Amino acid sequence: MFSYGVFNHSLHIDQKKINFTNFIYINMFGKKKAKPQIDKDQLELIENAQRRIKQKKRLYVHFELFLIGAVLLIVANTVLGIEKEFRPFGMEWFLFAILLWLFFLLYHVFNVFITHNFMGKAWEKEQLEKLVAKQKDRIEKIKQGLVKEETLLAQSEVYNEQNNNHSQDKKSELTIIVAAAENNAIGKGNQLIWHLRDDLKRFKALTSGHHIIMGRKTFESFPKPLPNRTHVVITRQSNYKAPKGVIVVNSLEDALDASKSDSQPFIIGGGQIYEQAMSSADKIELTRVHESFEADAFFPKVDDTVWKETANTFHKKDGDHDYEFSFITYERK
């Protein structure tokens, strides 16, 4: 009629429902919060599964009591002789007692497996579908949130990279340093036209420790490479030989690339290199010699609409200086 396996199987099925519910809950909400939030549908589903388990446990206990009670009734009548003479309808009284108890047991079985099962299956399925749909919706929202975060992160990384590149580009302040006469003359026969001691001191103080970019003719005007400076020589000659430590390049662009590690590389001449560098320079350190000279190399005119004067120091003519001159600093507007 009934067996322990039937009840155990039913209990096992309901336990799976609870385990499934717990699995969904744990995977969706994690274990970070000590008191996780369970919505109404989830709580109702869990409580219903627990209630079904209790109902089947009580039925199993009722079944065991029925078996034990039936045996005791039989023993009481047949062995102990209790009410042995009482035989309604010509039958032993314990049979009526067992049949009555069996009726209640069958009613209990019907109530658990038919009534509650019939009334609860559709509801349980509906609740599970609603729960799964909610979890899918939450998963989709989480995915969308992650996509948004990844997009923002990628945009932030691109922005930072652009800023870093911009910072790296701007951290090098390309400076032109030159001594030019009132008529912008800077030299003749690849030599300086004047000798101004303070101008040479200023040149040394400003360029020391930096890259100095120059044309081949300017480099060859030096008796030897200037100390404590990195020389970058621009020449069209593909096999130009230069002393050790001198960087030889074929264009101003390559010279700037070779000097990108320097915070302030200097352009020191000659005339063609100055002209090429005017469009990319950030600053001009000009020694303006207040005299005009015949020359074959000239400095480009400083355009006041592009450059603003930020410093100007005048020096009079004296025993060490044959000409009046001014140290002028220009910065790009």
What does this entry show, briefly?
The chain is of the alpha/beta class and 333 residues long.
Query: How many structurally independent domains?
Result: 2
Q: What share of the residues lie within helices?
A: 40-55%
Q: How many helices?
A: 7
Total DSSP E strands: 10
How much is the radius of gyration in Å? 50 Å
Shape: rod-shaped
Describe the structure.
It is built from seven helices and ten strands. Strand 3, helix 5 and strand 4 (230-234) form a beta-alpha-beta unit. The longest helix is centred in the middle third of the chain and has 79 residues, at 93-171. It folds into two domains: 4-169, no CATH class; 173-332, 3-Layer(aba) Sandwich (Dihydrofolate Reductase, subunit A), CATH 3.40.430.10. By secondary structure, it is of the alpha/beta class. The chain has an eight-stranded mixed beta sheet, with helices on both faces. It has a two-stranded antiparallel ribbon with strand order 2-8.
Distinctive features:
rod-shaped, 8-stranded mixed beta sheet, two-stranded antiparallel ribbon, alpha/beta, disordered N terminus, 7 helices, Dihydrofolate Reductase, subunit A
Question: Topology, please?
Answer:
Layout: H1 4-29, H2 40-78, H3 93-171, E1 175-181, E2 185-187, H4 197-207, E3 211-215, H5 216-220, E4 230-234, E5 247-249, H6 252-258, E6 266-269, H7 271-277, E7 283-289, E8 297-298, E9 307-315, E10 325-332
Parallel strand pairs: 1-6, 1-7, 3-4, 3-6, 4-5
Antiparallel strand pairs: 2-8, 7-10, 9-10
